[in-house]
Protein: Protein translocase subunit SecA
Amino acid sequence: MFSLKNLFKGVPGDKLQSEYKGLVGAINALEPSYQALSDEELRGKTAIFKQELQTGKTVDDLMPEAFAAAREAARRTTRLRPFDVQLIGAAVLHKSGIAEMKTGEGKTLVATLPAYLNALSEKGVHVITVNDYLARRDAAWMGQVYATLGLSVGVVNHDASYIYDASHTQKEEDAVRDEEGSFRVFYDFLRPATRREAYHADVTYGTNSEFGFDYLRDNISYNQGELRQRGHHFAIVDEVDSILIDEARTPLIISAPAAESEDLYRTFVRIAGELKHEDDFTVDEKRKAIQLTDAGISKAEKLLGIENIYTEKGIKYVHHLETAVRAKALFRRDKEYVVKNGEVVIVDEFTGRLQPGRRWSEGLHQAIEAKEGVNVQKESRTFASITYQNYFRLYGRLAGMTGTAKTSAEEFYKVYKLDVAEVPTNRPVVRIDHNDLIFQTEQGKFKALARMVKERHAKGQPVLIGTVSIEKNELLSAYLKQEGVPHELLNAKNHEREGEIVAGAGEIGRVTVATNMAGRGVDIKLGGIVADKEKAEEVKRLGGLFVLGTERHEARRIDNQLRGRSGRQGDPGETQFYVSLEDSLMRVFASDMIKNMMGRFGIPEDEPIANKMVTRALESAQTKIEGFNFDARKHVLEFDNVLDRQRRAVYAHRRAVLVGSDKEVADVLVELAQENAEALFVLKKKEDELGQEVLMRAARTIVLQTLDMLWVEHLESMEYLRGSVNLRAYGQRDPLVEYRKEGTRMYKEMEMMLASRVFELLEVLNKDVTSGVAPGQAAPAPAINLSIPQGSVLGEIGRNDPCPCGSGRKWKN
Structure:
């Protein structure tokens, strides 16, 4: 009825509104009858909808009624009634699209409608946010909507899991939650729970990293009872551009220490310290890479006391040297990382948040630890890995929402087959976006910015300033102090309070300095945290929230996200960027002609100019780097697709062995025995000797442990292949084609080795080995209790029957 095939490709707001007119009208027509229902009758609708799904209706058929029920539940509990445009956004999500909704348009509330509708199929819905704080906040705030409709809600965090506690109904606290739930986490509504409980709730909130890591953990587990997730049915990704694009190149890796770290890291960091930029190595800031010169290699060889680093020490020393130089030239303290409690902690380049527990791979983290003089931790061995791109493609259906998706619409479609739809705002945007002001130097820019903030602060207008790093945050703070401007400083070092600080940024006279997009997802209300009409009107009279950007980001999306903090829900507001020719983007991409032209004008460093040529250069630089980054992500994906197909096959085998019936385990064994009639004979013989139940328990353990060991070795081989295959380009061979060809050959070798080792181990099994194992156990893996079917799982095979291994030869017993 509401088929929207091919609707989302570049659909503007007015056309979208027209397409959804019928759906919105149907939901609005149902509203009076739903408002007349008692709480019990409203909850009872969920059971009715589930029954209708079982009798042939689809979730699309139920959309108008389910959305009407969820809207009414939201009105009764949160005192928020989704507007018509929010219904459109909800429908876009349900239809597996990306809803571009401006800041303040209620994305958190919108997600409850498609989440409720898709949870009716009882397969689970995942709502994915960018950090643990937002996952807890959204579950505690929106949990009441789902609970009213009879659904359960789980939360998955880095170090804890929760279930929404619908029994906690203190009216006083409930009223405060309605007022402050957009930035505060109300823990009384969250009950600690196991990971498994949280995933088995109808709707589960969590971060992209936790969902991804739990998927990997499930695929290295030896106990069926430890499995956390129950499949990948439907996901709604909040801040979808941040997760599916900004973090797309970040691989999720589960690893363990492999060996003691060597003194080599400290040795090579010392050598890197002796090498000089330009003379001994060059830096490509666009690609974030370094290139050693012949002079640099010679100097390193002399310092190491060797004649030829390539022939004497092999690739290992070359890798250590290049990594140490990268650590020196491209990674700066308080920008890419901080040193906290004697550890190097990564700073997320997009949000400015600390990433404890995350480590750079390939020895880079150890090189930085050596550079900073802290304890160099052990190198690690990868046990499981996946990129976000391939993790999110596991979902049967995927949807997303953000305030800034249009500029990346091509990438969303090409990588994820997701179309972007611009959802119209409830009220027109009246924010004023001023032209950029361009300065010659960074110092001049900050001086002028501090003076301007002082003027705005004096008249009471709230100001929010976005910086690109902790370093710049603290530098700007020093300039503001010189001007005597009181301000709140928010960066990755004190992000525990970020929700409350950002929520209060609209207060009269407030000046907030925030790293990049810290506090993203938090609504800024004019007048302050607590609703006060008089204060809100006063701020509107002063011009609304003034948002200042201190540097253009590589991606236009990030700039637009910062602008979007101002002018929510039709409020007045202003935005402006202060840019200097010393900023990273301009330093790398601006032409020398522009720099020379500005120098000739003789303009003081703290005086701005407005020049169309410079503005065009900025826009051109952003377009170039967006294209470059898209190509880089696409390149990573093309390579990872090779490993992804192998990963899916291995994990499917593993899951069948871990949780499948004995017949499924036997099928895996028969598949392994293809082209090897002798192996199948061993299997049949051992079933006769040991009995079916004992053999299957032992086989599970043997296959799982052997597969895991070989898979870890295969991952290491593929990583080495990935690092070396680019050299083949010198021989006029495509590295991707070579990687695919070699990777396939290596995978087939792993399969052959798996079959060989499994049947070798099965052959030496005897009653002495298995006699101490009680039914339902398989040492050394934990117990797996399964119902065992009667008769041989391998079936009765007669002499001269076709061999079940698939070889085409006859069976000989």
